[in-house]
Amino acid sequence: MRAREIQPLALDSYQRAARIILSNHLVTQSYPDRIALPLLRRWATELREDLLELFGYRLEVTETTARLFTVADRLDPTAAARTTNDRTFDRHRYAYLALCLAALGRAGNQITLSELADHVAADAAQVDGVDLSTERSADRDAFVDAVGWLAARGAITLADGDAGGWAANPSAGEALYDIDRSVVVALFRPPRALQHLTSIRGLLSGSEAQAADEDGYSPDRSTDLRETARRVRRSLVERPVVYADQLDDDERLQLALPRTAADVEALTGLVAERRAEGIALIDTSGRMSDLRFPSTGTVAQVALLLAGEIADRVLDPDAVQLVRMPVPEARTSDLIAQLDSAIPAGGIFHGLAERTAEIPVAEGGATELFPLIEDSWIRHTVEDLIRRYGRTFAAQWQADHDGLRHEAVAVLDKQRLVRRTSGGVLALPALARYRGVVVNIRDRAGQPQLFADDPESVAVQAPVLAPQPPSEPVPSDQ
Fold first, then answer.
1. What is the average per-residue pLDDT within 462-466?
2. Which long-range contacts does 75-81 make (Cβ < 8 Å, 24+ apart)?
3. Single pTM value for the model
C-alpha cells in the first residue's frame, strides 16, 4: 500500500487528495475548487494503486479532469443528485440531465440555452413518459436545474446571459455556454453498455460473479477473500456506520480484522471508531460528506436534539420498557423494480443483451432486535423542542412542525442512527453517542437590528463528531 510509504510531512496532502476524489468522484479545473485537480495530479500514481488495491476503484487523471470509476455493491436511494438550491433530483431532472449530456456530446464549442433545450425536447419526445415543453414553467425549472448541475462541475461554463432569465421568460432571456468536452466525456462512462442491459442489476458488482458461479466456474478462494475485503472497505467509506449484523459471515470476519479499517484510515486520514456492533469512520475534517452532522441549521439542530432525546429514552432505566423489533429488510428489490420499469424497451439491443443474474439485494438477514420509538412519542418530543427553542428556529419551520419532524428524522435515518419502520423508528446502536447533548442559547440582546431575525440562535453541541457519508456520486456511477 503506497500510503504507508509516504513521508509523514507529505501524508496529510496525500490523504486530502484521497478524500477529495472519494467525495466527488469527478474533479475538474473548477470543481469542487481550483486547487483540487493540481493536488490529485501530484498524487495520481500513488492514488491509482491504492484505490484499486483497497476498493477495486479505477482512477483516470488527465490534464483537465480526474475521474474515479467506482464499484456499486448496492443501490442507495439516499445518494441522489441535488440542485444548486439543495433540492433532490426527481425523474424529470435526471432525464433532462442525461439528454443534456447526449446533446452536448454532439454540439460544438458553444451552445445557447434555448438551443440545448430544443435538442433535449426533440430527444425527450422519443422516450415514453418524458417530454420537455418550454411553455411549461415546471419543465423549464427542471431543465435549468439539470443545466446548473453540469455548470457546477465545469462541463459547461456561462459565457453570456442568464439561465434564470430564460427560465422566467424564454422569449426574453437567453444564456450562452462554453462546452468543455473533456468533462462531458468524463461524466458519462458507465461500466457496461446501457443498451445491453435489461435490468439495473447489471450495474451492480455481484452480477458477473454470480453469473460465473451459475456456469460452473469456481473462483479461487484468495480472490474471493480479496473481493470481500474490498467490499467491506467500500462500505466503510460509503456508509456513515457499518453494522456487523447487516453483513454476511465472510464480511463480518473481514470487518473484525484490524487491518481492514486501518488501511482505510491510512489512505483517508479518517479515524475508525470501533464498537461491538460495528465501525464508523469519523471525519474530523468535515470535508468528506454531503451531510455534515452535527451541523448548523434548524433541521440539523433539531435532529441532534431529537437524537439526544431518543438516546435518553432508550437508556432510561425507570421508563416503561420499549418494544424491540428487527431492522426491516431493505426494499432494494422494490427500488430495482421501479428503475427497471422505466428502462425504454425500444432502446435495448436484445440480441446483445447481457444475462442479468438474480444477485442478493438485501443488506443482511439481521435477527438482532432494536427498541422501537413510536411516531406519537417523536411527535410529542419535537413539539416539546419547538416550545422550548422554537423562537430561535427558522421562520419556515416555526410554521411547519410536521415538516420539521419529517426532515429531522430523515437526517437521522440517512446517518444510520435510526431506521424508519412501520409505526416509528428503530434506535440503532450508534445513536447512543449523542446522549447528553448540550444546548446553549445565544444572547442576541446586544447585537444590532440587522441580525435580529437570524434564525440560528441555538448552539447545539454533541459529545463528538458524527460519522460522515460520502458525497453523492455522479449519475454514471449508479
1. 37
2. 75/200, 75/204, 75/332, 75/335, 75/336, 75/339, 75/361, 75/478, 76/238, 77/335, 78/414, 78/469, 79/472, 79/473, 79/478, 80/472, 81/149, 81/472, 81/474, 81/475
3. 0.83
